[in-house]
Amino acid sequence: MLKYITLLCFLLLSNFFTYAQSTGKLSGRVVDNMGNAIDGATVSLLSAKDSILVKADFSNKEGGIEMEGIKQGKYLLRITNTGYGKYFSSPFSIDDKNNDIRLNNITLTISTAAMGEVTVVSQKPFIERKLDRMVVNVENSIVAAGNSVLEVLERSPGVVVNQESSINIKGKSGVIVMIDGKPSPLSGADLITYLRGIPASTIQSIEIITSPSARYDAAGNAGIINIKFKKDQRQGLNGSLALSYGQGRYAKPNASINLNFRKKNWNIFGSHSYSQPQLFTRFYINRKFFDADRKPVSIFDQTSFIKQPIMSNNSRVGVDYYMGKQTIIGAMFNFNWNKNERDGSTNSVITYPDGEIDYLTKTAIQLNEKRFNGFGNFNIKHSFDSSGRELTADIDFGRFRATTRQDVFNQNVNKDDVLLNDNRLNTDQRGLITVKSLKADYIHPFSKTLKLEAGIKSSLVETDAEVNFYDVVNGNAEFDPERSNHFLYKENVNAAYAMLAKEFTKTDIQAGLRMEHTSTRGDQITTGEHFSRSYVNWFPSLTVNQKLSDQHQLSVSYTRRIDRPSYRQLNPFRIFVDPYTYVVGDPALKPVFTNAYELSHTFKGKYITTLNFSRSKDVITDVFVQDDNTRISYQAPANLQDFYIVSLGTFIPVTIKKWMNASLSVNMFWNKYESPFQGGNLTNDFFSWDARLNSSFRMGDKGWSAELNGFYQAKNAWGLFVIRNIAQASVGIQKLSKNRNSTFKLALTDVFYTNRVAVVVNYQNMDFFTDRTWDSRVLTLSFTHRFGKNTVTKARQRTTGVEDEKRRAG
C-alpha cells in the first residue's frame, strides 16, 4: 500500500511542474511469457543521466501503459511487477521531432525470487476503495479468521445481513451474490445458510459493485457482491492449509486446503473446506391482536431458543489449458454438501389486555435438512491479436437439491399448566432446481482509446418443488391435501448487449445497452392453476469519468436494473414456522424496476465521496398479514408501489507511517416506502446512517500485528418494518513465523455482544416487536500454512454465464 501512495503523490507533483512545458508522450503494452496482459505492473520513467524518477504509472487490465506530459529530455524506462524480473529499456529521447514514443510489447519474465517477505510488506488493507467497486481483502484480515463468509459480509461497508433471509446494500434489497464471477446457487434463507457454511479462510476478497455495467445481467437493484476464492499463482505444486477453532456458546471448528499445480501450458487447481459450527438463535416476539374497533383483545409473548448444528463440505476443482499464446480452454466445478439440524422450543404466553393469562402454548420443533449444490462451467477464450481483440464463451449448468423433514409437537395448557389440547404435525419438503446457460462475449478495440464490447446469453431454469403435510393422530401420519402442494416453474431469459468505451485526454465515457426477453410459466399441480408471462425490457447504462485536475476526479453514472422474484417467493407453499406463524409465496409477484443515479468525487486518488439516488417501482419486500380471529400471521413477499432512497457516503483511508493503516466509511441515507396496502396507505421513511472502521497495526519487525474493526447501523426503514440500530466491535492479534509461511491468529468478534436484530411494526391491525440474537461473540484461534514453490505466473481471471438465475434458486 505504501508503494501505491508514494507513486500517487509523486504523480501529482510531477504533473503539476511539467504541465505548462513542451511535452511528449509514451505508450506500450506489458505482457508475460505467454503473451498475456499484465495488469498493475509498476512503470517508472527515469532520467538517463542520473536514474532519478521522473514519472510513474501502472499498466491497465489490458497491459497498456500511457504517459503524457513528459518534458523534453533523455530517459530510461523501468518496469517491475511482483513475481517477475525487472525490465530496463535502452536510453531514448523526447524532443520536438520525436514526441510520441510507441513501444513494442514489453515482456516480463518470471522471477525465481522467493515471495514470502514481499507478500507481507505489500499487504493490502482490509478495505480498499476502487473507482467502480469496494474491495474487502478477506485473506488479510485477522478478525476474519475462523469466521464464515456471512460474518465477513456483516462487517463489509454498506452491507446489512438479516441472519435469516436477506442481504442489503445501502438500504436496498435485490443483491446478486456471485462466487468467482459466477452467482451463488441460492437466494433468501437458502443463500444465508450456504454462506454461513463457507469458511472465510478459503476466500481471497469480496467485491461490492453498486453500479454494474451492461455486461452484467440487469438483475440486482442494489448491485453485485462478488466473492473470490483463493487461487494460487505460483509455478509448480503449492497451496495452503488453514485450521481454526472458535468458541462462543458452542464450538465452531473448521479446516480448509487449497492446492494448485501450474506447469507449462497446464494449470490445475482445487480446494476443499469442512466446517461444523454449532449455532443458536434466541428469538422474542410480542404481538397484539385487536377487535373491529382496534381495541386490543389479546397479547402474545413468544420466546424461542433454537440450537442449530451445521455440517458443511465445499469442494472446488478446475483446469486451464493454454493452447499457445492466443487460446485458453478451461473447466471448473463447485460442489457443496450441507446438513442442517434444528432443535427448537417455543413458549407462548397469551394474555388479556389487563395481563391475566388466557392460556399458554408449548411447541417443540425438530428439523433435518440436507442440501447438495453442484455447478459446472466449460469456457474458452481466444485472443485474435495483441490489440486486445478477444472472444470468450461459456457453457454453465447446475443442479440444486434440498430435502427437509420437520416434526412439530404443540401443546396448549391453561394458566395452571393443565393440558387443554395437543397436536402433532410432520412436513416433508423436496426441491430440485436445474440451471443451464450459454454465453458469449466479444471485445473489439478500434484504437487505444476506443473499445466495443458485445455479447449474447441464453438461460433456462426449471424448478420442481413439493411439500407434503401430515397430521399425526394416535401415532399415524395422515396426509393433509389442503396444505400440501406441488409447484413447477420454468423461466427462459435471452439477452444481448453492446457497450462502447471512449477515452479522451481527461474524460472517459462508457455507454451500454442491454436487452432481455423473459418468458415464464408456473404450474400449481395440486390445484391445477397455471400462469405464464412474456416480456421484453431494455436496460441502458452510462458512466462518465472526468479528471478535473491532478487532485480531483468526478464520475457520473446511470443504470436501469431489474429484480425478478426468487423461485421460492413465487412458490405458493405454506412453510410452517410455529403454530401462529407461516411463510407463504405469491406467484403473482411482478419484477422490480429501478433507475439509479450516482455522482462520485475522488480527491488525491483515495478520498471518495459518493451521492446516490434511486427509485424502484413495485419493490418486493416481506410483509405480514395478521388474522385477529385465528391469531395466525402470514409472512409473505409483496410488491409495494414506490421505493426511494438518497444516500451520501464518504470513504477515508488513513496511513500513519508504516505501523498503522485504517479506513473509515460513513453513509447517510434517507429511504421511503409508499404504497396502498391492506386497505390503507403505507408510508414508511427514515433518515439513517452507518459507519465502519477498519484498522490494522504493525507491532515491530518480528511479525506481530493487530486489528480493530467495528460498525454501527442506525435505525432504518425496510418495507413495513423499522429495524433498530445494530453494532459490533471485533479485535484480533497475529504472529507470522520467521520464514513468513505460517500465520497464527487470535480474534474476538462482537466484543460487547451488540450485534442483534430488533424489528418494530405498527400498521393497520398489526402492532408487534421482535428481537433476535445469535452466537455472535466468538473467540477464535487459527493457524495457516503456505507451502510449495514461489515462482509466480499471472493468474487467469474469468467469469461465467450464470448470473441472475442461480442467485434466485432456492
TrEMBL record:
The keyword Signal applies. Its main location: membrane. It is found in: Cell outer membrane. It holds the Pfam family Plug. Residues 145-223 form the TonB-dependent receptor plug domain. Residues 382-784 form the Outer membrane protein beta-barrel domain. Residues 1-20 form the signal peptide. Keywords: Cell outer membrane, Membrane, Receptor, Signal. It comes from the Bacteria. InterPro entries: Beta-barrel_TonB_sf (IPR036942), CarboxyPept-like_regulatory (IPR008969), OMP_b-brl_3 (IPR041700), Plug_dom (IPR012910), Plug_dom_sf (IPR037066). This is TonB-dependent receptor domain-containing protein. It comes from Terrimonas rubra.
